[in-house]
Amino acid sequence: EVQLLESGGGLVQPGGSLTLSCLATGFAFANFPQSWYRQAPGKGREWVATIGERGTVKNYDDSVEGRFAISRDDDYNTGYLQMNNLQPEDTAVYFCRVMGYWGQGTQVTVSS
């Protein structure tokens, strides 16, 4: 059974940092690109970043370029999203996606 489990969300002050994790089980994680999406209150789900197989290609939405860093550790079947200089507009539920599968999401709240 394919499962994606996000963790690492929380409450952080503006300018702070968080690292999200996505643990993948039930399939060969290393063979697929992995993406992060987010959904802010009252808005649709939007793409944040994608990392290709073996981490050779990384793409970011303009809104997070230079602040967020996507990475992966295929030995541990885990993807990561390092988020720096967080701002209130980054507040959202963050989701991991691989193939057509989604995790349950982890809440990130940026507030003073």
Task: Summarize this structure as a short list of keywords or feature phrases.
mainly beta, 11 strands, 7-stranded mixed beta sheet, 4-stranded antiparallel beta sheet, 112 residues
Tell me what you see in this structure.
- With 112 residues, the protein is an all-beta fold.
- The protein is built from no helices and eleven strands.
- It has strands at residues 3-7, 10-12, 18-25, 34-39, 45-51, 58-60, 68-73, 78-83, 92-98, 101-102, 106-110.
- The strands form two sheets. Strands 2, 4, 5, 6, 9, 10 and 11 form a seven-stranded mixed sheet that branches. Strands 1-3-8-7 form a four-stranded antiparallel sheet, with no helix packed on it.
- A hairpin with a 2-residue loop joins strand 9 and strand 10.
- The radius of gyration is 13 Å and the shape is globular.
- The N and C termini lie far apart (40 Å).
- The model has no long low-confidence stretch (mean pLDDT 97).
Which sheet architecture does the biggest sheet show? 7 strands, mixed
The unreliable regions are none
Q: Based on helices, strands and strand pairing, what is the structural class?
A: mainly beta
| Whole-number mean pLDDT | 97
Order of H and E elements: EEEEEEEEEEE
Count of distinct strands: 11
Number of helices: 0
**Amino-to-carboxy terminus distance:** 40 Å
% residues in beta strands: over 45%
* Mass-distribution shape: globular
State Rg. Answer: 13 Å
